Amino acid sequence: MKMIEIKNLKKKFGNFTAVDEINLEIEEGEIFGLLGPNGAGKTTTIKMLATMLQKTSGEAKVCGINVKEDPDGVRNCIGIVFQDTAVDVELTGRENLDFHARMYGMDKNEREDRIKYVLKMVELEDKADKFVSTYSGGMKRRLEIARGLMHNPKVLFLDEPTLGLDAQTRRVIWDHIKTINKSEDVTIILTTHYMEEADYLCNRLAIIDHGKILKIGTSEDLKESIGSDLILIKSHKMRQLKTELAKYKWIIKTEIVHDTLRITLKNGGTRIPAIIKTSEKLDIEIDSIEIHKPTLEDVFIRFTGRKIREEADVMANNRMRNKLRGGRT
């Protein structure tokens, strides 16, 4: 069953197009990722699917329900965890979950059973009656996820679920997301800046930039789509070397990204001697040369022409500064 169906979905804010006629289908039980930089259209897409924003044009269905024709029906079948912390820090973890359950009309016995179950799932049983103001960042995110699961949604949206968390805490959240996907039989759609997050969690993912979906597939399929190996060279005469190397038939593609000459080719390890020989013939000194298998970072660079990691770090740092100043994040 298709849990998400999007056809030519578009969202404009005045003259600015945030989401540009995207098409997407997500199957039941998938963990599907929207991978892209800040401002790519990821969160806007999620908000339209969650009925928080009205689309400009196109069609979207969630759980087989048209988001425009039956928004209440959509809301009853989804859970959502926002980028920003939305739990009440003046309440305990248990009280936050109980309040959320009451909003969905769950009776007392059902609430109590479900609260106990989701707290155990995210390993917060021993913190249930502590004020959320005493929670760490990772604990708050786990509580947010538990809250999103309280009413047994069929689809769970996670908008940048680990943004700003340290690497160890991020890994803990990932493991909880995988467990929830299997134990709850819930379809998960997440947005992320983090390559390793998309690689570890997602059955499939879409690379999105400037409101357009550029490529969809499994992590392995996307990596294979840009060639078997990459050789990265740094030199003061990269353009001259690039022109000469491009003449070889065994080189699939040469491109300069920032300060690096990137060469896509098969069997890269056997070709390094020829590359070095060519540089010596041209009297070009190579500062460094390395070979590696394609990563999602390489895929992103191929389709967008720039890196994403720095943007993720900048966004996380800005959010932290805003919190310290007491501003919005």
Q: Which strand order does the major sheet show?
A: 6-7-8-3-9-10
Summarize the helix and strand pattern as letters.
EEEHEEHEHHHEHEHEEHEHEEHEHH
- The CATH homologous superfamily of the largest domain is called P-loop containing nucleotide triphosphate hydrolases
What ranges have pLDDT less than 50 throughout 5 or more consecutive residues? 323-329
Count of distinct structural domains: 2
The total strand number stands at 14
What is the assembly state of the chains in this entry? single chain
The major pleated sheet works out as: 6 strands, mixed
The dominant shape is elongated
Alpha carbon gyration radius: 23 Å
Structural class: alpha/beta
The helix count comes to 12
Distance between the termini: 36 Å
- Which CATH top level class of the largest domain fits? Alpha Beta
**Looking at CATH, which topology of the largest domain would you report?**
Rossmann fold
Helix fraction, binned, reads 25-40%
Roughly what is the average pLDDT, rounded to an integer? 90
Tell me the β content. Answer: 25-35%
CATH architecture of the largest domain: 3-Layer(aba) Sandwich
Characterization of this structure:
Strand 4 and strand 5 form a beta hairpin. The protein folds into 2 domains: about 1-220, P-loop containing nucleotide triphosphate hydrolases (Rossmann fold); about 225-295, ACT domain (Alpha-Beta Plaits). It has about 325 residues and is of the alpha/beta class. Helix 3 crosses helix 4 (about 110-120). The chain has a 6-stranded mixed sheet with strand order 6-7-8-3-9-10, with helices on both faces. Strands 2-1-4-5 form a 4-stranded antiparallel sheet, covered by helices on one side. About 40% of the residues lie in helices and about 30% in strands.
